[in-house]
Structure formats: structure tokens, C-alpha cells
Amino acid sequence: MTEPLDATKADPFAGAPTFSMRNRLERAAFAFVWLLLASWTPPPLRRWRLWILRRFGAQLASTANVYGSARIWLPRNLTMAPHSTLGPGVQCYCMAPIRIGCHVVVSQRAHLCCGTHDILDARFQLRVRPIEIGDDAWICAETFVGPGVKVGAGAVLAARAATFIDLDDWTVYRGNPATAVKARQQFQRTR
Questions:
Q1: Which residue of 47, 73, 99, 158 sits 20 to 30 Å from the alpha carbon of 5, by its own alpha carbon?
Q2: Angle, CA of 58, 38 and 44, to the nearest 5°
Q3: Residue 148: Cβ-neighbour burial (10 angstroms; 0-12, 13-18, 19+)
Q4: Residue 27 lies in a domain
């Protein structure tokens, strides 16, 4: 897991970096490579994008799909199971691990955000927590999933909703903050 620098030393108001030089260089190298070799690629070049992400430490099933316009903060913190997709324009702010289950769709311009700040700390220190998305979940267009959230299997977060709490299995949520609106019919997938 990516850890910020020692909170007793990092003072963002004094210009101190939150992450190590190694971390920042790794992210810069990935951003440059992604821009140059992947961001412009059409959808059928999925395997090429997966190959690049794996070179930077992402753990991706061979049937995962990441669109070229998706933005991934640190690939080594991303794990995707078979048949899962990060759609166009997805912001994957994986300051901590993000684990995405099988047959998950993260739709266009959704935001998965593992970082926040401690508002009770005078130095406004960064806090990071992992996100986990269960099998068969759907994170709809332009949604926000906050730090530490566990999205249950088969859960749906409706378009433009925001969640900062765990989502139950096979339940549909909408709004900001997201609230449960109905159960989703469960199904068994033959794998």
C-alpha cells in the first residue's frame, strides 16, 4: 500500500511533499508513458493498455478492460478481476489499493477516490484508505466512491450518486449521500 510520508514531518502548508520522491517519480513516469503510448488508443487495443499497466505493477486479469481515457494515479495499487471494466474518463485515484471484482463495470467519468484529509488536524494531513468493489457491481456514470468504501456484490451506485459508506450486496443506491432505494434481483453467473 502507498503510504504518505511521516505525518509528523510533512506539512503541506509549508510546501512539504506528502509522498516520497520515489513515489512521485514513479507516478510521473507512468503518466508520461500512458500519455504517449495509451491515452489515445482506441478501445480494441485493450491488451496493449493492460500490458503497459502491468509494467507499472497493476494486477489485472487478461479479460479486464481499461479505456485509454481512464486516469490511474498509481497502477501498482490497482487490482482488477476477470471481465471488469474501467470506462472512459474514469478517475482511479488509487493512493491506497483499489480491488475490483469480477464482472464489474465502472462507467464513464466515475471517480474512485482513496484519499481525504484530516479536517481536525491543523496541518490537514492526508489520510488514505482502500476501496473494494464486489463481483457484479455497477458503479454508474459520474459517481463518487470515497475512501474506505466497500461496495457489495451486485450493488449498483446510480448515476451521479456519491457514497462514503459501505454499500450492501444486491442493493441499488442513488443520491448524495447515497441511500438505498431498492433491492436488485440476484443472479448466478456461470463462470
A1: 99
A2: 95
A3: middle
A4: yes
Owning domain of residue 109: 21-183
Residue 14 in domain: no
Separation between Cα atoms, residue 75 and residue 153, nearest integer Å: 23
Does an H or E element contain 117, and which? strand 115-117
Q: What is the pLDDT of residues 150-172, one digit of tens each?
A: 999 999 999 999 999 999 999 99
pTM over 0.85: yes
96 domain residue, yes or no: yes
191 part of a folded domain: no
The x, y and z cell numbers of residue 128, run together, are 488514505
> Which cell goes with 40?
489515445
Residue 100: CB partners within 8 Å, gap ≥ 6? Answer: 78, 79, 80, 81, 84, 86, 106, 133
Grid look-up 484519499 returns 115
The structural domain count of the chain equals: 1
Domain with 126 in it: what CATH number?
A: 2.160.10.10
> Of 116, 156, 151, which is closest to residue 139 (Cα–Cα)?
156
